[in-house]
Write a structure and sequence with these properties.
Shape of chain A: globular
Keywords (chain A): Cell inner membrane, Cell membrane, Membrane, Transmembrane, Transmembrane helix, Transport
CATH topology of the domain at 1-92 and 211-257 in chain B: Rossmann fold
Protein name (chain A): Transport permease protein
Distance between the termini of chain B: 52 Å
Structural class of chain B: alpha+beta
CATH class of the domain at 1-92 and 211-257 in chain B: Alpha Beta
Pfam family, one (chain A): ABC2_membrane
Oligomer: heterodimer
Shape of chain B: extended
GO molecular function, one term (chain A): ABC-type transporter activity
CATH architecture of the domain at 1-92 and 211-257 in chain B: 3-Layer(aba) Sandwich
Structural class of chain A: mainly alpha
Distance between the termini of chain A: 27 Å
Membrane topology (chain A): Multi-pass membrane protein
Largest interface: A-B, 22 and 25 residues
Number of helices of chain A: 13
Largest sheet of chain A: none
Largest sheet of chain B: 8 strands, mixed
Helix content of chain B: 10-25%
């Protein structure tokens, strides 16, 4: 633990520089520049709102566009930092073969990069809240914690994924598919409340309902997205019950994922 | 206490490519049928290498391609992990394994200096402090805010070199970076390296194919061959050994590589080509400046009224050395059907040590090519004396005299092969 913290501290400047590089590089030769970071969640929000007008999703007393935007923010952040993180090592082959620094810097930097974009979408969220005349409550102070938790969840996949991707590029190919599947079993398009109602209140799957719900919340994103919507839009504390199964999984898997990454690290330069 | 200690360092790689799903299934099938699957063989890039380097030493690492030099540097720079053995380093290591690693084309020179500096382990303050000096050295002040992708390759390398050499590390690892830019800049680079090495008292490990440079800069040289450190000593000693090794390797290769290139009408068949010594015995080696005798035996399919034979020699890289035609001596010489023998004689063949080949052309009186062949026979010219240091700088070995401050010197061959200067 201590060495990890020390490494992170020692290489903080490098990580900051690399993250800055990633952010600037993405938008350098693009006319719209950093605006792309905003456009993506906004477009998705518009599409989902359009879809919702056909299929009818119960969004409670929160307007659907802002609800889905608040879901898309942590989701997009998670999805992009995971996929960037997984490909980060292979994507930096030139550096890996030439210079040594702790390799975990690559996945971590990917996540940091995405954090900048997440920050930008907060501006949009604030605009939407003004538009819908919503006042943030004191619970908004939970946001940093929720984001920190999302980072850990993303790193759990990114570490192991990045290491395996060096040996088998299949991971990089499979990940986008897996992530889009994950989006449908996360409360992005629909609110978590719908799942709760179906399984916990109506017991739709009979005696399996409670187990199914626990399984559903094993996905850390279920708790994260719901908590984010709660603290920002609903003025309510996070639903910890929905977060605990996912959090337990992350606590167990993150160290394993990191250890695997560190073990594989020394052969990156040979295999890549 | 040594600053770098390498003990029993071994690195193995598995040869061949990764096996995909198809190969795995095929192997599984074969295993079920009771066949054994051949393991991919291991390759030892480094084989039990041990040495220690004291602070302030400047050590050159030389060897042929694939001798394990770069692998060794990678181990020292922690980029790769040894299979067995260990590498210990006390102090910050700056690996200049390849300058410009991590340059981003879309970034301006300024941005790249900061990025590259950070990658090489410099803090922002450190780069701030040295920024002007870096730009100055690279002669880039005018272009520093232009994206690097608009730079010429020479400009990129110059900037990269300037950044890389501004690191303040106790141990510098340098891999073939001295030869960058145009001649003037190379001179500057070289001076900078010498300054770093001689005046700042840092420990330097230098890998290079430029043996003269190594000889000049390094106090100690390690010669690598097939993953082993086969010599470790003073620069002059080890470099000399390397030169000798190099020469014999080139010769061996040339002999193997020389595949005869032949075309013709089929009217002439070459039966044998031999290099002869003074006694008429076939040899494969002559001494520089000795008489060269090439005997060619050939058979003609039918009578030829005016046959012209051109014989000559060329280097293995097809630089033509000599050529002579029988036409100059015997125009329209009639040849009858059947076997013949000619000898091509050069009374003194004063070429530098190396490997040479025989070339033959047969023409009829209408200048029709009956036979045209190159690399027909290779032979070696060996130096008269130990002159391996010079052999790469000359093509011919001409008799030389020097006049030094009015004193006349000439080299005189002694009977035992040694030479000395005489007035």
């Amino acid at each position: 633990m201590l060495t990890i913290a020390k490494n992170l501290y020692d290489y903080r400047e490098l990580m900051a520089t690399l993250a800055w590089k990633n952010v600037t590089l993405r938008y350098k030769q693009a006319y719209l520049g950093i605006a792309w970071a905003i456009l993506k969640p906004v477009m998705l929000m518009l599409i989902f709102t359009l879809v919702k007008s056909f299929v009818g999703i119960e969004s409670g007393d929160i307007p659907y566009p802002i609800l889905v935007f608040a879901a898309l923010m942590p989701w997009t952040f998670f999805q992009e930092s995971t996929s960037e993180g997984v490909t980060s090592v292979v994507g930096n082959t030139a550096l890996i073969k030439k210079i040594y620094f702790p390799r975990e810097i690559f996945p971590i930097t990917s996540v940091l990069t995405k954090l900048v974009e997440l920050g930008i979408s907060f501006v949009i969220l604030a605009g939407l809240m003004v538009w819908y005349q919503m006042m943030p409550s004191i619970y908004i102070l939970w946001v940093p914690l929720i984001i920190a938790y999302t980072i850990l969840a993303a790193l759990t996949i990114a570490f192991a994924g990045a290491a395996i991707n060096v040996y088998y590029r299949d991971v990089g190919a499979a990940l986008p598919v897996m992530l889009s599947l994950l989006m449908y079993i996360s409360p992005v398009i629909y609110p978590l409340q719908l799942v709760k109602d179906k399984l916990l209140v109506q017991q739709a799957a009979g005696e399996w309902s409670d187990t199914l719900y626990t399984l559903y919340t094993l996905n850390p994103l279920a708790g994260i997205i719901d908590a984010f919507q709660n603290v920002v839009l609903r003025g309510a504390p996070p639903d910890l019950n929905a977060m605990i199964p996912g959090a337990i999984m992350i606590v167990i898997l993150l160290p394993l994922s990191y250890l695997y990454f560190k073990r594989a690290e020394s052969y990156f330069a040979d295999v890549i | 206490m040594p600053v770098i200690e390498v003990s029993h360092l071994t690195k193995e790689y598995r040869l061949g490519a990764m096996q995909g799903l198809k190969q795995t299934l095929l192997n599984a099938g074969a295993r079920l049928m009771g066949k054994t699957i051949p393991e991919r063989p291991l390759f030892k890039a480094l084989d039990d290498v041990s040495f220690a380097i004291e602070p302030g030493e400047v050590v050159g690492i030389i060897g042929h391609n694939g001798a394990g030099k770069s692998t060794l540097l990678k181990m020292l720079a922690k980029i790769s992990t040894p299979t067995r053995g260990s590498v210990m380093a006390n102090g910050r290591i700056a690996p200049l394994i390849e300058v410009g690693a991590g340059f981003v084309p879309d970034f301006t020179g300024r941005e790249n200096v900061y990025l590259n500096g950070a990658i090489l382990g410099m803090s922002k303050q450190e780069i701030d402090r040295k920024f002007d000096e870096i730009v100055d050295f690279a002669e880039m002040a005018e272009f520093i805010d232009t994206p690097v992708k608009r730079y010429s390759s020479g400009m990129q390398v110059k900037l990269a070199f300037a950044v890389a050499t501004s690191i303040e590390a106790e141990i510098l690892i340098v891999d073939e970076v001295l030869a960058v830019g145009d001649l003037a800049f190379q001179r500057k680079c070289f001076d900078r390296m010498e300054d770093i090495i001689k005046n700042q008292g840092r420990t330097v490990l230098l890998v290079s194919h430029n043996i003269r440079q190594v000889e000049r800069i390094c106090s100690r040289v390690i010669l690598m061959d097939h993953g082993k450190a086969i010599a470790d000593g003073t620069a002059t000693e080890v470099c000399e050994l390397f030169y000798q090794q190099s020469n014999s390797k080139i010769e061996a290769q040339a002999h193997q590589a020389a595949v005869a290139k032949v075309s013709g009408s089929g009217e002439v068949t070459i039966d044998s080509i031999d290099i002869l010594d003074d006694h008429g015995h076939a040899v494969s080696e002559i001494e520089s400046g000795e008489r060269l005798r090439i005997r060619v035996r050939f058979t003609l399919l039918h009578d030829l009224a005016g046959l012209e034979i051109v014989a000559g020699t060329h280097r293995t890289d097809f630089v033509y050395i000599s050529s002579a035609s029988t036409h100059d001596f015997l125009p329209n010489m009639p040849f009858s059907r059947g076997a013949h023998e000619i000898e091509y004689i050069v009374p003194s063949f004063p070429l530098a040590a190396g490997t040479y080949s025989v070339r033959l052309v047969f023409l009829d009186k209408n200048w029709r090519h009956l036979f045209n062949g190159e690399s027909l026979k290779t032979f070696t010219v060996k130096a008269k004396r130990l002159e391996s240091m010079n052999s790469q700088w000359k093509m011919v070995d001409l008799p030389t005299e020097f006049l030094v401050d009015g004193q006349h010197y000439a080299l005189q061959q002694k009977t035992d092969g040694a030479c000395c200067a005489v007035k």
